[in-house]
């Protein structure tokens, strides 16, 4: 139940006669029910005894009205839960990845393949691992998010039920009931959206790693809760990451090697003249300061075929190298930002909402806050918990994307999956 995340109450609350928290419990008996639902207590010819009985009943519950609604729900016959796998049988990301790899025999290396073919397979495996990890993270987080929304819905249902009872006994106007019913309507819509998002995330993972299973069976294999938070993954300095990504790329080492071989056949003076010739070809036009509309080589300049090949090979290798370095910087910055948000802003908001709920609970115990204010505070803390969960998910996805870039994928490919 959603009440399990409330702090223990230190004071037993009683219904005050004629006060705003007056409440009639439906289990007082047939005679008391008839009097209670007929109108406010002061309209009954014998109210004193009934008010005392109601006070005693509500006082037996630590949280007053809210606990009574919870207690009533607990009296319903419990639903038979579906059999769940043991915790040790829950799917980790590694389990999901192995299932996805079994479904892709085309990505298995075979004897006799060249180094380039094996490098291409490693890149395809890195892309598959990224897709599966992202899908697994989203599916687990979506399940936890749906459960958070269920808690918010329970709080809204309790608020609407209590409001309806207050209206029935004449202590509240109809407008207050309508306000609580609007909150309930919003919570029901949010819960439905959360369930839909959970279903979509589950189907996405099932599409890649659900061979031999139904979506319902796959859902049972996923962890019920977000994995226990581990230490923030440690990455080497950017210069080391850049070198790692360059060497993991399938094309850059070959282009770099080709450019070095072509340059090795030229003297240092020739390399300097190539650079000077290229600079002159794109120099601003005299008197205008603007670059030429179509840069070209001067007919009087010597431009041997060997120079042409070396210049083009060096330009291609350097352009790809800059792209890879830019991808590393982009992925690293995204991971840093997502991690800071998950460990900073989201956690701070959760801490503040938790402190606010504790303060509201204390003021509620002192009869300075109403049941509905306590329910609203509890709902806000649950929503802050969900936001913190989603921030941790985004940080984990960003870390997976950075690892994919270090394995040789482009950042555009990593983000586009």
Task: Summarize the helices and strands and which ones pair or pack.
Elements lengths: L29 H8 L9 H13 L5 H10 L18 H10 L12 H54 L5 H36 L5 H7 L16 H11 L3 H13 L3 H14 L23 H61 L5 H36 L4 H6 L1
Helix pairs in contact: 3-5, 4-5, 5-6, 5-12, 8-11, 9-11, 11-12
List the keywords:
0% strand, 417 residues, mainly alpha, disordered N terminus
Structure description:
With about 425 residues, this protein is mainly alpha-helical. Helix content is about 65%, strand content about 0%. It has 13 helices and no strands. The protein has helices at about 30-35, 45-60, 65-75, 95-100, 115-170, 175-210, 215-220, 240-250, 250-265, 270-280, 305-365, 370-405, 410-415. It is elongated and about 100 Å long. The model is unreliable at about 1-45 (pLDDT under 50).
